[in-house]
Amino acid sequence: MNSKTKLAIITGGASGLGLATTKKFIEQGIKTIIIGRDEAKLIAAAQQFGKLCSYKQFDLSDTTGIPQLITEIEAKFGIPDILVNNAGINHKKAFTEVTDEEFSRVIQTNLNAVFAISREVVKSMLKAGSGSIVNISSMAAQYGIPYVIAYSASKTAIEGMTRAMATELSPQGIRVNCIAPGFIATDMSAKALDNDPGRKQKVMGRTPMGKLGEPADVAEAAYYLATDSAKYVTGIVLQVDGGNSIGF
């Protein structure tokens, strides 16, 4: 693949797994546009990565504004070759205490926004006759994890949506795949694990490789799935988890 000619959009591209993926894409010469809510983080990332990195500040939970967002991006940069749907939020709370509003807020960002931005980008990819979409799922879609009901629902839906999209869009040149990260050393995972020693011990006990992953591990998988290295791969959920999903 001549990655120097490629254009990528990464949601949540200024922190965590998204930032690591942005770094990998930039290193491979892919022009990358990062989308997020925190302008300070976006500016810092753009300054860190230089001229190949641009950003758009946008809250993806505002799905009504997504068509205009993509129109603006395409007017300035052209049709994206790659979309990485990485942005997401979590909400840890006992099942019976989760309100309708809290549940809906997670679904809006983690699922509805992924659908809306994918739909708009795919409209242009169809004109080009090619494209690659990488969705980010979670171990919460691989097995039951307590206290994250909305997050689990959203990520399970992402995996089903990945398969449906791949089946419909692959005949038209658009590959759609998914990554299910295990427990990766990020600020989000630290929040979930550091204050819950029992949960952390359980995570490590069922991970055969015996350690947390690094954001770069997910970035490498995203680059593989996004590029022509995976040109005959579509509709898969790739677990990057140190064996956590199969551990005993």
From TrEMBL:
E.C. designation(s): 1.1.1.-
Gene Ontology MF term list: oxidoreductase activity
One Pfam family cited in the UniProt record for this chain: adh_short_C2
PROSITE patterns assigned to the protein according to its UniProt record, in alphabetical order: ADH_SHORT (PS00061)
InterPro entries (UniProt xref): NAD(P)-bd_dom_sf, Sc_DH/Rdtase_CS, SDR_fam
Keyword terms: Oxidoreductase
SUPFAM superfamilies in the record: NAD(P)-binding Rossmann-fold domains
Enzyme class, broadest EC rank: oxidoreductase
Record Gene3D superfamilies: NAD(P)-binding Rossmann-like Domain (3.40.50.720)
Signal peptide boundaries: none
Family stated for the protein in its record: Belongs to the short-chain dehydrogenases/reductases (SDR) family.
Protein name: SDR family NAD(P)-dependent oxidoreductase
Species per Swiss-Prot/TrEMBL record: Mucilaginibacter angelicae
